[in-house]
Write a structure and sequence with these properties.
The chain has 119 residues and is of the alpha+beta class. It is built from 4 helices and 2 strands.
């Protein structure tokens, strides 16, 4: 009896066109909005009487659509995506900490919260 071995020969140009469709951009934005909501839920908020930046970090999350260039076989290919960022001036200190401020790791914990649903 002869054995049969299946093969897959992908149409990579077609897959590339698929990843640039508006529906893919909307799906990326929906995932980014979910991550934004998780990050806002984890964001620390200081006491307004003591902290002059109370709530600024939590209110500074934003989602922006991106088109990323992904090289494949030496040729740059454009792919749709979305990015979650925080525009507060002290966002880096809140995320990574320094000598006086503890590390909160808001983005890392929010990503773990969202990705734990898929395990």
């Amino acid at each position: 009896m002869a054995s049969f071995r299946s093969r897959y020969r992908g149409n990579f140009d077609g897959i590339g066109k698929l990843t640039r469709l508006p529906g893919v951009q909307l799906a990326c934005r929906a995932a980014a909005l979910e991550l934004q909501a998780a990050a806002e839920a984890r964001a620390p908020v200081g006491d307004p009487e003591v902290d002059r930046n109370s709530g600024l970090y939590k209110g500074s999350f934003d989602v922006i659509p991106i088109e990323k260039s992904v090289p494949w076989r030496g040729t740059p290919r454009r792919r749709a995506g979305a990015r979650v960022l925080n525009t507060a001036p002290h966002a880096w200190v809140v995320e990574y900490g320094n000598g006086k401020t503890p590390r909160h790791a808001v983005f890392q914990k929010a990503l773990e919260d969202v990705s734990s649903r898929f395990r």
